[in-house]
UniProtKB/TrEMBL annotation:
Pfam families: AHSA1 (PF08327). It comes from Variovorax paradoxus (strain EPS). Signal peptide: none annotated. The lineage of its organism: Bacteria, Pseudomonadati, Pseudomonadota, Betaproteobacteria, Burkholderiales. It comes from the Bacteria. This is Activator of Hsp90 ATPase 1 family protein. CDD domains: SRPBCC_CalC_Aha1-like_6.
Amino acid sequence: MTLKHSLGTQTAPATLRVERILPAPVERVWAYLVDPEKRRTWLAGGSMAAAPGGVFELRFQHSELSGEEAPEHYAAYRKTHIQKSRVVRIEPPKLLTITWGSESDAASEVTFELSPKGDGTQFVLTHRRLPDRKETVSVASGWHAHLEVLDAVLHERKPQGFWTNLSELEAAYEAHVR
C-alpha cells in the first residue's frame, strides 16, 4: 500500500495526532467542520451546537462518502450510525474540541486546530483518552480514511473507495500503533 499522507502518531499511550496541509483557506476548512451539509461529505452530518456544553448528534452515512458499499465485516455501518457528542471548546475559525462517542466527561475527546499555511490550512487533529490499543488502531485508521475524503472534496475530486482505503489503513495502523 502506498500512503498519500503520513500515518498519525501517538504522542502518548492514549493520544493520537494527525496532521495535514489541506488545500483551502482556514475559513473554508472550518466550514467543513461545523456546517452539517459540508461535514457530511467527508465525516458525518448533524447540526452542531455553537457553544461549549452544547450536545449534538453526528450522523454517519458512510455509503455516501464514496459510493462504495460497506463490506460484510462493516455491515453495521451500512445504515445511519448516530453518535452523541458535546462541544467542549470552540474558537472559530481556529479551534474546535468535542467529545467522541458520548457527551459525558469520561468520553474520548477530539481537538481540531486550524492555522494558515501558505495558500492552505495546517490541520491538526488530536484524539485523546483512547481506552486501548484496539480503539487507537480503529480511530487512527478511521480518521486517516475520513481525512483522505476531506482532501479529495477540497480538491473537488471524487474520493477513492472509503472501505477499501479503510481496510488498507487498518493493516498499516495495526503495524504502526504500539
